Structure formats: structure tokens, C-alpha cells
Amino acid sequence: MKETSHYTYVFLIGIGGIGMSALARYFNQKGLKVSGYDRTESTLTKTLIEEGIDVVYSEAVNDQIQNLSKEKTLVIYTPAISKTSKFFDFFKTQGFQMHKRSEVLGHITKHLPTLAVAGTHGKTTTSAILVHILKASGVQLTAFCGGILQNYNTNYIGDGEEVVVVEADEFDRSFLRLHPTAAVINSMDADHLDIYGTSQMLIDTFQEFSRLVPKGHLYAKSGLDVEAQFIAINEDADVRVGSVSIEEGTYIFDFHSGEHHLEALRFSLPGHHNLFNAAAALALAIDFKPEMANQFGKALASFEGVQRRFNYIYKSDDLVVIDDYAHHPQEIDAVYQAISEMHPEKKSVVIFQPHLFSRTQDFAEDFAKSLAQFEEVNLLDIYPAREEPIEGVTSDFLMHLIQHSSKQLITKSEIQERIARAKNEVVVMLGAGDIGVEAIKISKYLHETI
């Protein structure tokens, strides 16, 4: 790939994706002309347009596209792109310079200090916490995030190049293109088996990623099969969280890492998984600038969260509604642990939209066990994303595996009715598909009518 300064125009196929839109914002800030295509309009694409980025929703190859310079145009595409994409076919046939998002990220970060957050769960929250504590402490950073940070209402930070923060995405082995100076691996649970085939192949690839990190600068959850400094809660480890208590919905804890001992830190995101994410972010920040450890620790208290990561969209004495991106059994377990800890007196209700036919098939039994923990289970149709249907793999198939007396299939149009009759309940809306759009509608409805 040529230096980015060589290009004057950038076109992104799949610009509305959370990772792709961050790259669009990066190039827009650098002064390049940026445009792109996405299948559907969204809040994010509307915001990009407001920022001066052109977005089209039709794959009609117009005169503007046909007149682009092959030499001066960089075409970036997401690996999740449809094989029938007309834009992809056009740019490839015409000989444009085309690169996957991961290649471009690898190129941008190649010569800059880079903190990478890896793992099948927790990447977005951990990287968001890391971005916040660095930025709040005055570090001039560039960051590409996989979610919208509540503190800054964006997924891209472009303050400077002291350090770059990236999510090291295992999908399509993308993270092997990065050049991390320090990294953390939060988890290596089986996922993306449509790409890897077996869980061992996934682990092997994480181990390959770990070898890209300079010795002594890799951190990982205790028990993972990599050579790293291990992180744990209330256990002996290289990086340890201890003396954990809860005060008015906020965690208070001590943090120990080498010579750094920070006491009575405050962090408001619920769930032990988020407490671990905070410790992982703190470890990476201190690795980068150990002399600022105390500032980083204090900055945790002002972190407001990430959209669609345990977001309270409504909260009253009688009803709590939470929106979360959880789309894997382990993530559903983590959400259940958090609501059980924070709202033990309320009935737990889940509305779950399975994501991908292949993932539903691969983890059907585990999904069934995770969902059965809730006192009531509601299933939406499977969100297909990039996939074609698999015969016999439906939400009805999954529902029959759930050992539960209170379970049902519902449609999106029935969500409001179900939540409207809730009494003393905590309702969690889970999934990586368009259930997030429904959560926005529910939030508006509840705040306007109740």
C-alpha cells in the first residue's frame, strides 16, 4: 500500500460500519475527499454527511465514480462485504487500488506507538476506557473505536499522534496486520467458526498475534494460553484488582501492577467483566506512560460508557431497560451477572436477537443455557447480516433447546407491548443486529409516555 499522502480521494464500501466510519473520519480530518456506500441509512451515516462526508445508498456507478483517478483514489472495503457488491466489482475490474480495512489500519499504525485491544469479547469497552483515560489525562492520541464513546459522542479521536489506540479484530484474522507496541487479550472463547473452522485454530491465531507484541508488553486475562502478564480480579496475578465493593451502583477497588498500587478507584460500569475491562485498559495506559498512573486511575471515575454496551435506556423504581451488544453466550452470561448484582430484586427479562445463522448453529446449546438463566426469554428472528439462511437454523430451533417454562418468539412490533406491561422488571435487549434500532425507539417511547 502506498503512503496515504499519495491519495486525494478515499471511497469506503460499507462506510456505515462502526470500524469503517472511524477510518472515514480519519481521512476526512486529514483533508482528503471522502465518500462511501452503505446499504442502509443510519444515525451514523447521517452524522458522517453532517461532517462533510458523502454517503450513497445505491450501488449505481454514477459519473462521479467513473471519473475517479485510479492513481489518486484509495478504495477501502470491509471483509463482511457482499460477494455481489456492484461497487466492489467495478473498482476491482477497473484496476483501482483496493485494500481491506485491516490493511489500512496496519499501515496507519506501522510507525506510531500503538496500543491494541484484542479478544473475542470486551474489545470495544476496553479500548473505549483506554481512550478516555488517556484523553482525560492530556495524552494527544489517535483512536479508532468499535463503538460510540458516550463521553465524546464519536468512534474516532484525532487529537494527535503520541499514541494510537486500535481494536485488534480477530475476524478474518485482521489483527495480524497490526504493529502493536503493547496489547491486551481479554478472551479467546470460540467464535467466528465460519472463518476458523475450530476453536483451536482461533487460539492458534491469537497466539500468532501475541508474538507480534514486544516481550513484556502483552497483558491477558488470567488462564489464557499465551505468554503474558496476567490480569485477574480477587486472585493472585501480575495485574490484580482487589478490595472490590459497591457504593450506590459504583465499583470501588484497588489496582496493583508491579510498582503501581492505586487505591479506592471508582468505576461505574456494571458487571465484573467491565471491572476486568477497566483493569486491562489501566494496565495498557500505565505501560505507555507509567509516570501518569495516578491520573489514569482517577480518570476511570468519569468514564460514561459506550453506546450499546450495557446502556441504561430507561430507569425507574418499577422498570429498568438495558440495551447491550451481547451476541455470544459468554457475553450473555456477563450481562446476566451484572443485572443480578445491580438489580437483584427485579424480575429478569431478556429480549434476544440471535446474530448470524452460523453462530446460532455453532453455539446453540450454549445460547440455550445462557438464556435460560433469565426469568423470562423472548426471541426475535435471527439477524442474518452477511449470511444466507441455513436450513433448520431458526429462532424456533433455538427456542426449543431452552429449558424454560416462560419463553416465546416475538416480533419487533411486539417489543413495545411487552415492555409496556412490565412491573418490577429489568428488561435487557441483546444482540449485534438491528435490535439496537428498536432500543432507540423503545427509549423514545418510554421517555415520552411514562
From TrEMBL:
<dbReference type="Pfam" id="PF01225">
    <property type="entry name" value="Mur_ligase"/>
</dbReference>
<keyword id="KW-1133">Transmembrane helix</keyword>
<dbReference type="InterPro" id="IPR050061">
    <property type="entry name" value="MurCDEF_pg_biosynth"/>
</dbReference>
<dbReference type="Pfam" id="PF02875">
    <property type="entry name" value="Mur_ligase_C"/>
</dbReference>
<dbReference type="InterPro" id="IPR036565">
    <property type="entry name" value="Mur-like_cat_sf"/>
</dbReference>
<dbReference type="GO" id="GO:0008360">
    <property type="term" value="P:regulation of cell shape"/>
</dbReference>
<keyword id="KW-0472">Membrane</keyword>
<dbReference type="InterPro" id="IPR005758">
    <property type="entry name" value="UDP-N-AcMur_Ala_ligase_MurC"/>
</dbReference>
<dbReference type="GO" id="GO:0005524">
    <property type="term" value="F:ATP binding"/>
</dbReference>
<comment type="function">
    <text>Cell wall formation.</text>
</comment>
<feature type="domain" description="Mur ligase C-terminal">
    <location>
        <begin position="308"/>
        <end position="432"/>
    </location>
</feature>
<keyword id="KW-0547">Nucleotide-binding</keyword>
<feature type="domain" description="Mur ligase central">
    <location>
        <begin position="117"/>
        <end position="285"/>
    </location>
</feature>
<dbReference type="GO" id="GO:0071555">
    <property type="term" value="P:cell wall organization"/>
</dbReference>
<keyword id="KW-0961">Cell wall biogenesis/degradation</keyword>
<dbReference type="GO" id="GO:0051301">
    <property type="term" value="P:cell division"/>
</dbReference>
<keyword id="KW-0812">Transmembrane</keyword>
<feature type="binding site">
    <location>
        <begin position="119"/>
        <end position="125"/>
    </location>
    <ligand>
        <name>ATP</name>
    </ligand>
</feature>
<comment type="pathway">
    <text>Cell wall biogenesis; peptidoglycan biosynthesis.</text>
</comment>
<dbReference type="InterPro" id="IPR013221">
    <property type="entry name" value="Mur_ligase_cen"/>
</dbReference>
<dbReference type="Pfam" id="PF08245">
    <property type="entry name" value="Mur_ligase_M"/>
</dbReference>
<keyword id="KW-0067">ATP-binding</keyword>
<comment type="similarity">
    <text>Belongs to the MurCDEF family.</text>
</comment>
<dbReference type="InterPro" id="IPR036615">
    <property type="entry name" value="Mur_ligase_C_dom_sf"/>
</dbReference>
<dbReference type="GO" id="GO:0009252">
    <property type="term" value="P:peptidoglycan biosynthetic process"/>
</dbReference>
<dbReference type="InterPro" id="IPR004101">
    <property type="entry name" value="Mur_ligase_C"/>
</dbReference>
<keyword id="KW-0132">Cell division</keyword>
<protein>
    <recommendedName>
        <fullName>UDP-N-acetylmuramate--L-alanine ligase</fullName>
        <ecNumber>6.3.2.8</ecNumber>
    </recommendedName>
</protein>
<keyword id="KW-0573">Peptidoglycan synthesis</keyword>
<dbReference type="GO" id="GO:0008763">
    <property type="term" value="F:UDP-N-acetylmuramate-L-alanine ligase activity"/>
</dbReference>
<keyword id="KW-0133">Cell shape</keyword>
<dbReference type="GO" id="GO:0005737">
    <property type="term" value="C:cytoplasm"/>
</dbReference>
<keyword id="KW-0963">Cytoplasm</keyword>
<dbReference type="InterPro" id="IPR000713">
    <property type="entry name" value="Mur_ligase_N"/>
</dbReference>
<feature type="transmembrane region" description="Helical">
    <location>
        <begin position="6"/>
        <end position="27"/>
    </location>
</feature>
<keyword id="KW-0131">Cell cycle</keyword>
<feature type="domain" description="Mur ligase N-terminal catalytic">
    <location>
        <begin position="13"/>
        <end position="111"/>
    </location>
</feature>
<keyword id="KW-0436">Ligase</keyword>
